[in-house]
Amino acid sequence: MKGLHWFDKFLFFLNILAALVLLFSYLLPYIPPSTFALLSVFSLGVPLLIVVNVIFLLFWLFRLRIQALLSLIVLLIGFNHVTSVYEISSGEEEMQGDNVLKVLTYNVRQFNQYGWAEDRDIPQKISEFIKEQDADVVAMQEYYNGELNIARSFPHKYIKLKDKNAEFGLAIFSKYPIIATGSLDFPTQSNNNAIYADIFKGGDTIRVINVHLQSFGIKPNLNNIEKQHTKRVFLGMGQTFVRQERQMDLVRDLIKNTDHQSIVLGDFNNTAYSYVYRELKALGLNDAYKEAGNGFGKTFEIKYLPLRIDFILPQDTMEILSFENYEIPYSDHFPITASLRIGK
């Protein structure tokens, strides 16, 4: 650090800390939350750590300082993590045909039933958006019964409400016949769940699994952490990740026990740096964003962090032709779509 001004030395010290924490975070997807729940919470901060290290890299490069090598090396070691924040790809144009399936997933936040937004036309706007996308299959989380006007576009559907007295749950809408359905009915009195529908198109049966893994009791953003007791917040978030691990086990078993090609999509309430994401990918699933996405893959509206917690993960027997995410203000999540070639 010879030749550095005292302020530059201080910045480089911060750079060392940021680089070391990012390097450690690369291990987080391999640590089950059930063994160390609090560690899993830090996976939410990985996008911010990557951005901070990129800023340090650019700062030292601009100054023509050898210190730029620190963040450069750490970012290269975790290159797969870096591309989970920002992706540059040349996905093909969407195609039509018997062997192409376009899927859309969207956490619709119960169509604004509880007035989180001033806009009272959100159900109609979401209906119009879905019609414009012209997807073959639409999966929704936090679906509120009876609010959509898309019945003519999707003659086949499977809706699973939380219970017989509830008006919200999960939904799968399809242009093509649904020949079987099911619900995993997550335990521990969770409001979250996963459902599936076997959809027949072009001589193939595709199992579409719509997941909504355990939600946080609070939004895990910096404002909440400042306002509430930090230890209690992090402990609660850690237990959420433990529940997600158990729920993911059920989804994994469902995939293993089917002969159909599978697509897992929905709201994971977790990032691409998490244990649950890595375990599902290990089943031979690809991330549509990483294969064909462009730009930041942000799917959740939260300050300071480009969080991507909604995914489309098709089996690697399918070719990913395109991926899009849409930053529209109708929910706290953003919808995503992917076009897939499903022929074996």
Automatic annotation (TrEMBL):
Source superkingdom: Bacteria
Gene Ontology terms, MF aspect: endonuclease activity; exonuclease activity
Membrane as UniProt keyword: yes
Ranges for domain Endonuclease/exonuclease/phosphatase: 104-333
GO BP of this protein: GPI anchor biosynthetic process
Keywords: Endonuclease, Exonuclease, Hydrolase, Membrane, Nuclease, Transmembrane, Transmembrane helix
Pfam family for this entry, one: Exo_endo_phos
InterPro entries (alphabetical): Endo/exonu/phosph_ase_sf (IPR036691), Endo/exonuclease/phosphatase (IPR005135), GPI-anchor_lipid_remodeler (IPR051916)
Transmembrane feature ranges: 12-31, 37-61
Keyword Nucleotide-binding: no
Coiled coil: none
GO CC annotation, single: membrane
PANTHER family per record: CALCOFLUOR WHITE HYPERSENSITIVE PROTEIN PRECURSOR, ENDONUCLEASE_EXONUCLEASE_PHOSPHATASE DOMAIN-CONTAINING PROTEIN
UniProt protein name: Metal-dependent hydrolase, endonuclease/exonuclease/phosphatase family
